[in-house]
Amino acid sequence: MSTAPPLIRGYEVVIGLETHAQLSTQSKIFSGASTSFGAAPNTQACAVDLALPGTLPVMNRAAVERAIRLGLAVGAKIAPLSIFARKNYFYPDLPKGYQISQYEIPVVQGGTVSFLLGEQRKTVRLTRAHLEEDAGKSLHEDYQGQTGIDLNRAGTPLLEIVTEPDMRSAAEAVEYAKALHALVTWLGICDGNMQEGSFRCDANVSVRRPGAPFGTRREIKNLNSFRFMQQAIEFEIHWQIDQIEDGLAIEQATVLFNPDTGETRAMRSKEDAHDYRYFPDPDLPPLVIAPEWIERVRSELPELPEAMAARFQRDDGLPAYDAAMVTQSLPFARYYEAARQACGEPKLVANWLMGELSRRLNTEGREIDASPVPAITLATLIRRIVDGTISNNAARQVFDALWGGESTDVDALIEAKGLKQMNDSGALEKIVDEVVGANPKSVEEYRAGKDKAFNALVGQVMKASRGKANPAQVNELLKKRLG
Ligand code: ADP
Ligand code: MG
Q1: Contact (CB, 8 A) for 136 and 152
Q2: Within a 10 A sphere around the Cβ of 83, how many other Cβ atoms?
Q3: Which residues on adjacent β-strands are paired with residue 116?
């Protein structure tokens, strides 16, 4: 860490994140039932998921393989042997009375995730990532005042990814979560759909005076949007500081964020591990992962975001910041590469991606896959700027028209809107002559050394050309004409 962590009201914030990533397997982690989302309640829960007596869990290879992929991508150790444990608690949506998870020996151990926070590169250490099954869902619908239980989600494979308490602000926690989200979707191990709960985070938050030992943490459960995460952590920080300033102690607790009020509220005092009476699950043998399996998965890994960013810096000459931005997700990187290949202008493509395109995507809450302006079309637009057909300003107008669906043809739009720059130097020279003739005062002032007068003349020529003259060319012609 190169700079001192930011303080809020004189306190340092400490955050550790636990993320549940739902693994994108066809079937559940210990049964053959389907994992697809949105089916009618209890149509995708088989005897194993319902915990009928006599049923036994069978480990799903595809889930293990996804855990290995993540472990390799974050530089973690893949445990050659890991153990499934029973985490015992009573809840209506957990028919077995325990959740199968990993406790003492998780499948993925250590590793790091790094990302940009502003212009600064941050690295967060991972403690572990372990495989576990999801629980069912209680449906508190107003059905004769009753609560229903849907066990479709029971047994869905999860990878719980736990960090060290390394983050020092809400913004840093959000950037970490975004980087992890980008990574799991990049690896194809999780669909990343936050609305459907495929990627949800618990944020452990504490505050302390700089240099003091870690404070007591409270854990905000189930944050399923980056915006909520930011709001919840910020509220929690101020709540904890208020408590301490009032002379009260923070009690370890599990809290929920209410998006309607923007507040966090204690749900239960936090259980300790011993409350769960963890013990190895006698129904499942140890999970043994042979070195050959790990090497096979390693050989099939795609190029990772950091490696790709390094390549864009090296081969395309992109600045580090731009390279990180265009590799913020796989679809983004694919878009960048397609556009760059088509127009050969890496820096301009990056500028448009980070500027106009991101702005439009953000305001409309769209993903880049759903951009109304495809990479090839953006490349054509950039080519028209580079070859002098249109100015940057005109390009923005064309982009707006493309975005709005007026047409998908860049050249047709340039034509229809009369945005072509005047590159015919004969016609332009004529305008320059006219402007020089009509503005003797400015010419005199320019010759007397006033730069402002020159700019005024450029402005007159641009105006006379109705904005279609190429400003660089106007500059050149005027300088020549004025000697
Ligand atoms: P538990 O087993 O009770 O869930 P862990 O020790 O596994 O607790 O920690 C859970 C998460 O809380 C981890 O991400 C860890 O980094 C984070 N954490 C631990 N101590 C603190 C603290 N004092 N402040 C903020 N986060 C913390
Ligand atoms: Mg935990």
Answers
A1: yes
A2: 18
A3: 121
Mutate to test the pocket of ligand 1, among 204, 214, 223, 271 (most ligand atoms within 8 A of CB): 204
Helices (H) and strands (E) in the chain, counts: 16, 18
To the nearest 10°, the Cα dihedral for 346, 347, 353, 357?
-110
- In Å, what is the CA distance from 454 to each residue of 239, 282, 429, 466? 60, 86, 16, 18
Going by their DSSP bridges, the two strands 157-163 and 112-117 should be labelled as: unpaired
pTM to 2 decimals?
A: 0.88
Q: What is the pLDDT of residues 359-416, one digit of tens each?
A: 999 999 899 999 999 999 999 999 999 998 998 889 999 999 999 999 999 999 999 9
pLDDT at 225 over 80: yes
Contact criterion met (CB below 8 Å) for 149 and 136: yes
Helix axes 170-186, 61-73, angle to 10 degrees: 130
Q: Which two tokens stand for residue 123?
A: 């690295």
Secondary structure (3-state) at 82: strand
Query: Rounded to whole angstroms, how far apart are CA atoms 429 and 449?
Result: 23
Q: Helices 471-482 and 440-447, interaxial angle, to 10°?
A: 80
Contact 474, 428 (CB under 8 A): yes
The closest residue, in CA terms, to atom 11 on ligand 1 is: 16
Burial (CB count <10 Å: 0-12, 13-18, 19+), residue 95 = middle
Please give the distance of CA 78 from its chain centroid, rounded to a whole number. Answer: 25
- Measured CA angle at 24 (ends 23, 28), to 5 deg: 75
Tokens 């340092």 label which residue? 12
Distance CA 78, CA 111 (A): 10
Enter the tokens of residue 39. Answer: 């089916």
- Do 18 and 162 form a contact (C-beta atoms < 8 A)? yes
Residue 467 has pLDDT above 90, yes or no: no
Per the structure block, which two tokens stand in for 212?
Answer: 């003091």
> What are residue 117's DSSP bridge partners?
120
pLDDT at 1: 46
CA of 276 to the centre of ligand 2 (A): 12
Q: Say yes or no: CB of residue 206 within 6 Å of ligand 1.
A: yes
Per-residue pLDDT band for 2 (boundaries 50, 70, 90) equals low
CA distance linking residue 71 with residue 102, whole number of Å: 15
Give me 168's structure tokens: 């020092």
Determine the Cα–Cα distance for residues 181 and 187; give it in Å rounded to an integer.
Answer: 10
CA dist 312 and 276 (Å) reads 48
Can you tell me which atom of ligand 1 is nearest the CA of 219? Answer: 12
